[in-house]
Amino acid sequence: MLTVDKVSKSFTTPGGTVHALQDVTLSVKTGEFVSIIGKSGSGKSTLLSILGALDTPTSGSIIVDDTEINTLSGRKQTTYRASKIGFVFQQYNLIPNLSALENVMLALEFGGYPASSRLDRATQLLHSVGIEEDQQHRRPSRLSGGQQQRVSIARALANQPAYILADEPTGNLDSVTGKKIFDLLHDLSRSQKTTIIVVTHDLDIAGKTDRTFTLQNGKITTK
């Protein structure tokens, strides 16, 4: 269970204070697949970063499985991210000097996955998102944007996280591959009780999730 209680986030800029989030309150049940929609600049990515303990709120609290993650020490937040969270970033964030396979294996290493099983696990994950064997040995610069996104999704799934936080996971994919990724995430939420929170501009995807939250000017307007 994930609970967001009156979370606000403000930034100070040369032009004044920017209120990225304002008293956001929501809850997501274990195994639920929800989407967050809203215009660019509405606070979607900021909220996702706070849920993943990549950023801290100015006020309010985020409680994940009875733990208030925004009050944890930096070390404990790192452990929380490694053990509980799978991130799918809009800009992929793959390590450029590692192959696709090595990127996924590194995530497995950080998550404490047994060394003897990492290669098989990484290969299986990459196949599941449509990355063929010859592509698995390429560095990100030799993969298309869509292929890089699929590698980032495989990496997010590496350690069987309880929560997947995805920022526009199908934004750079063709419709066929996008549907395959969506179906994969949907299956995870049903078969493994993985809680999935997706930020998306794709209203077709949003319409197929269990619930949709709308952010407007940093505030939840529908849920």
From TrEMBL:
The keyword Cell division does not apply. GO terms for cellular component: membrane protein complex; plasma membrane. It holds the Pfam family ABC_tran. It comes from the Bacteria. Keywords: ATP-binding, Nucleotide-binding, Transport. This is ABC transporter ATP-binding protein. GO terms for molecular function: ATP binding; ATP hydrolysis activity; transmembrane transporter activity. Residues 2-223 form the ABC transporter domain. InterPro entries: AAA+_ATPase (IPR003593), ABC_transporter-like_ATP-bd (IPR003439), ABC_transporter-like_CS (IPR017871), ABC_transpr_LolD-like (IPR015854), MacB-like_ATP-bd (IPR017911), P-loop_NTPase (IPR027417).
